[in-house]
């Protein structure tokens, strides 16, 4: 995997296990640093055998210490380290993450999952706290002390109008809309996008069971641009 483009690259040599450098890309463990950014730097510079993939500062700045394809010494055991990326968050329990710190952390997790092809945002499956890793041989800890707003770490399922329109064109050209030669009129795309979004909103409001009707004509003609 590539390095996170929004992070400042400040690598450490404290990583991997001899010849074992392969991270398994199975999810993230979110930590509380229990200290300042300067404290994190002192750990990296000092003799303690500890490192992490990323640190997220209160101002939203992200430092990357270990390549995401390699193993950091952050989650308390070999097994948990090779399975999950470790992300430290500046600050101490019980203070919550700052808003910019959360946004930076969320975007980082979203990027990692996208790069690794992880589509399952599930607690204790792909999203972990340090204190939950005993089954992988990690020692008991209280980290991250209730600092992580887990309800806000979820897959972003919002598509833009342009993304929806491009998806419609691809589906049509694949012959999956029952249209002659997969042709969709560009003048109808806006109407179709609006109708689809209205359908989705109605389904969400009704718990996903209510039918929704609209006035979109079943006849769609013209041509789309290649996506």
General description of the model:
The protein is of the alpha/beta class and 227 residues long. It folds into two domains: 8-152, Lysozyme-like (3-Layer(aba) Sandwich); 158-227. The protein contains five helices and six strands, in the order E-E-H-E-E-H-E-H-E-H-H. Strand 3 (54-56) and strand 4 (62-64) form a beta hairpin. Helix 4 (161-173) crosses helix 5. The longest helix has 20 residues, at 186-205.
Features:
227 residues, disordered C terminus, six-stranded mixed beta sheet, globular, 5 helices, 6 strands, alpha/beta, Lysozyme-like, 2 domains
Put the structure in a nutshell.
The chain is α/β, with parallel strands linked by helices and 227 residues long. It has helices at 37-45, 78-83, 99-116, 161-173, 186-205; strands spanning 8-9, 28-32, 54-56, 62-64, 85-89, 127-129. Helix 4 packs across helix 5.
Topology:
Elements: E1 8-9, E2 28-32, H1 37-45, E3 54-56, E4 62-64, H2 78-83, E5 85-89, H3 99-116, E6 127-129, H4 161-173, H5 186-205
Parallel strand pairs: 1-4, 2-5, 2-6, 3-5
Antiparallel strand pairs: 3-4
Helix pairs in contact: 4-5
Terminal CA distance: 26 Å
Taken together, the total number of domains comes to 2
Give start-end ranges of low-pLDDT stretches: 209-227
Number of helical regions: 5
By CATH, the architecture of the largest domain is named 3-Layer(aba) Sandwich
CATH superfamily of the largest domain: Peptidoglycan recognition protein-like
Helix content: 25-40%
Main sheet attributes: strand count, strand direction, barrel closure: 6 strands, mixed
CATH C-level category of the largest domain? Alpha Beta
Shape: globular
Measured by DSSP, the beta-strand proportion falls in 5-15%
CATH topology of the largest domain: Lysozyme-like
How many strand elements?
6
Give the structural class: alpha/beta
**Gyration radius, rounded:** 23 Å
Give average pLDDT, whole number.
Answer: 83
- One letter per element, helices H and strands E, the order comes to EEHEEHEHEHH
What is the spatial order of strands in the main beta sheet?
Answer: 1-4-3-5-2-6
